[in-house]
Each structure stands twice: as structure tokens, then as C-alpha cells.
Design goal:
Among the domains are: 57 residues, no CATH class; 97 residues. It is 44% helix and 16% strand.
């Protein structure tokens, strides 16, 4: 994984004056003290620090003139925690790049600023939570600005159990929109998930693989649907290869319902189907309908028997004669700024590969579902920014 980021820096002489009291009201603990006037109470308070450069800094102490309580103000890059923001950022970055929690701890120890693997874990999870909050706010800002929504799913292990991670992206620009865990990959759950997201961003087009359940989702939500040509080509190629091998080696008897159809004709038609789909021919739907009519009389299998190659050909041609518009939608679609689609769901697959799978390959699985969301969201948030992204945004002081 290649990342170029800027780590938070400790600035021991740079202080931001307090603007609000950090305590709660003495009379009503449910409310915060709304004091905004303060007096310096102590100028220099020693503060031990775990950092790559400073072993100690000084803090300032102020008194709230409303509640009369005192509190510390730390220099930039320092908080009440024992570790500096630099160490927090470095621990998060090292984990993102592939080190284990223990590996990060060992490396930082060799640099003279030991933090336990538990602290590293807490740093990563806190940064992930912050990244989730930032992404939600960013998605709300994109309301009505994302016409094409891409979705895909991947499976991860959490405490030995299979979990389904749903990923949504802005196809035209490549940004990940959300990472969510679905209890089951059913059309009903996916429909609700897509509906909520599409409503926020104003999506009119849904890009997915060619699973039948996703076609149902697009229809129920009245979204234009583009199926990924790469998925279709692979699936059709495998099916065509199986049908061709069957016809050449052990062809099923020709059903009496199919008049004037021979095995040689079948082999020719199988190749025609693959050529039409692979090339997304201009007359593809008409030709596919013609082939579907040729095999529409092929009988379905009886109970306890497998479908014949003739019936499988019937299903193949009928399926793509009905769904041709989903395959060829990218040819005619144009966005509000004349954007074009490439007919694939590669953007979403790349997000899964780079933001989820690349880090996951070095692990034995997750221990918490929330960790899946935190880590994936954190990597996705950092990667979507340009080189030189300041990690201070996700490192809370």
C-alpha cells in the first residue's frame, strides 16, 4: 500500500487559548458549564510525554471565572494522554501499512517511545471512529451530487464467523461512500441499505455485478441499472465453455420440441451468444431474442434430473434477451456534466481490494464487527485524499 501523509507535530510553545469550560455545571450535571471567560492560574505545569523528540513539555493552567475550577491547556500536538499526537499518528500509520498491533508497539519501543499493543489498538479504533464521522458528514455534503452509485460485497471472518461487508462508492469519482455490515446478503436488506444511501446522494444509476437479487433491488427502487461487463463476460464464458464441451463430448439427445436444431447449430449459437455479449453488439438484443425463440421450446428437467444443455441454452438466451438493456446501459448514458460509464464495477472492486482486502490478508480475522468498520473506513478515508493528507484530522487530541 502506498500512502503519503503528514503526521501531527508537537509544538511545545504553541498554545490555543481556551474558548469554553471543559467541566459540567455544578448545579445541573447534565449540562456543561458555559463559561467563556478564563484567567491564567499557572503558567508552567510540567507534563511528561512519550514522543519521538520530546520527553517533557509544559502546560498552562486556567481558571474558569464562572465555576472557579481549574484545567490544563496543552501545547499543539499534546493532550492529557501520555503519548503525543505524533506517536498516535505514527502508530495508526504503521498499522495501516500492515504491521500488527504488537509489531507497531515493538517498533515504537525501538524508537524510544514505548506504547503497549493495547494502546496501539485504541489509537487505531479511535482514528477509525473519527474517520466514520468525517465520512458521514462528507456524504451529507454530497447530497444530490452523486448520480451513479456502485455497490459490491465481500466476506470477512470475525471470531471465526463469516461477515458480509457491503461497500458503496461514487462510481464517477472513485470515492468510497460507506462500509456497512449486513446480517444477510438478501434482496430485502440490500434494498433498504441502497434506498437510504441513494436518497441521500441523489443517485439515479446503480452499478453492480450480475446477481439476480441486485436486479430486483434496482427494479424496486426504480433505479437505472448497469451490470458489470467484466462479471458478465467471465460468467458467460464459463457457461459457454461448459455447454460447448458438453455438446462436443457427450451431447444430450435433441428434444423433439426443438425442430431443425442440430448439435452443430447449437455449437454455432453458443459461440454467437458469447460474441454478442463480449462485444455488446448494437443488434445484440434483437439477435439474443432470435436465439431465445429458437430454444424456447426446450423442456425443463424433470424432478431428480439435471437440466439438459438445450434447456440451459434456453435459460441463457432468455436471460440476456430480457436483461440486455442492463448490459448496454453504459453506451447511451451521459451524466449532468457529460460523464460516461465504462460498463464495469471496477471502482467498487478496487476500493474493496485496497481499503479492505489488502490489510485483511495479513490478519487471521477480526475480533469485533466494529473493528472491521473502523479499519476499513480509516484506510478508505486516508486513501481518498491527495498526497500529503494531514493525519491530525483523524487523531483526536
Amino acid at each position: 500500500m502506498h500512502l503519503t501523509v503528514r503526521l501531527p507535530k508537537v509544538q511545545p510553545t504553541n498554545f490555543l487559548p481556551p474558548t469554553h469550560c471543559p467541566f459540567r455545571d455544578r448545579k445541573n450535571p447534565k449540562r456543561k458549564c458555559n463559561g467563556t471567560h478564563f484567567k491564567e492560574h499557572q503558567h508552567q505545569c510540567p507534563k511528561p510525554l512519550r514522543d519521538t523528540r520530546f520527553s517533557q513539555v509544559t502546560a498552562q493552567r486556567y481558571r474558569c471565572l464562572k465555576c472557579q475550577r481549574t484545567f490544563r491547556v496543552y501545547p499543539m500536538g499534546v493532550s492529557a494522554a501520555q503519548q503525543s499526537d505524533t506517536v498516535k499518528g505514527l502508530s495508526v500509520l504503521l498499522y495501516i501499512l500492515g504491521l500488527s498491533y504488537q509489531g507497531v508497539s515493538d517498533l515504537l519501543d525501538s524508537l524510544g517511545c514505548f506504547v503497549s499493543k493495547t494502546t496501539v489498538y485504541e489509537n487505531v479504533q479511535a482514528a477509525g471512529q473519527r474517520a466514520i464521522q468525517l465520512r458521514k458528514a462528507w456524504v451529507k455534503q454530497q447530497a444530490g451530487k452523486i448520480p451513479v452509485l456502485g455497490i459490491d460485497f465481500t466476506h470477512l471472518k470475525c471470531q471465526g464467523e463469516d461477515k458480509i461487508l457491503a461497500v458503496a462508492t461514487a462510481v464517477l469519482t472513485g470515492e468510497p461512500l460507506t462500509f456497512d455490515i449486513l446480517e444477510a446478503e438478501t434482496a430485502l436488506r440490500i434494498t433498504k441499505w441502497v434506498q437510504d444511501l441513494a436518497k441521500i446522494i441523489g443517485a439515479a444509476v446503480l452499478v453492480t455485478d450480475d446477481a439476480d437479487g441486485l436486479k430486483t433491488v434496482a427494479e424496486e427502487l426504480n433505479l437505472q441499472h448497469e451490470v458489470c461487463r467484466a462479471h458478465v463476460n467471465r460468467n458467460v464464458h464459463d457457461l459457454v465453455a461448459a455447454l460447448g464441451t458438453k455438446a462436443l463430448e457427450h451431447p444430450d439427445p435433441i428434444p423433439p420440441e426443438l425442430r431443425n436444431v442440430t448439435v452443430d447449430q447449437f455449437l454455432e449459437d453458443v459461440q454467437t451468444v458469447e460474441d454478442l455479449i463480449k462485444g455488446v453488439a448494437a443488434n445484440g438484443q434483437t439477435e439474443m431474442q432470435r436465439l431465445a425463440e429458437r430454444y424456447q421450446a426446450a423442456p425443463p428437467p424433470t424432478q431428480g434430473h439435471r437440466a439438459s444443455m438445450w434447456y440451459r441454452m434456453r435459460r441463457l438466451t432468455l436471460d440476456w434477451s430480457e436483461n440486455w438493456a442492463r448490459l448496454a446501459h453504459y453506451l447511451s448514458w451521459r451524466g449532468p456534466k457529460n460523464e460516461k460509464l465504462d460498463g464495469t464495477n471496477n471502482v467498487t472492486e478496487q476500493v474493496i481490494g485496497q481499503d479492505v482486502k489488502e490489510r485483511y490478508r495479513t490478519m487471521r480475522g477480526y475480533q469485533r464487527e466494529q473493528s472491521i468498520l473502523n479499519v476499513s473506513s480509516l484506510i478508505g478515508w486516508v486513501r481518498m485524499h491527495r498526497a500529503g493528507y494531514d493525519l491530525s484530522e483523524v487523531i483526536s487530541s
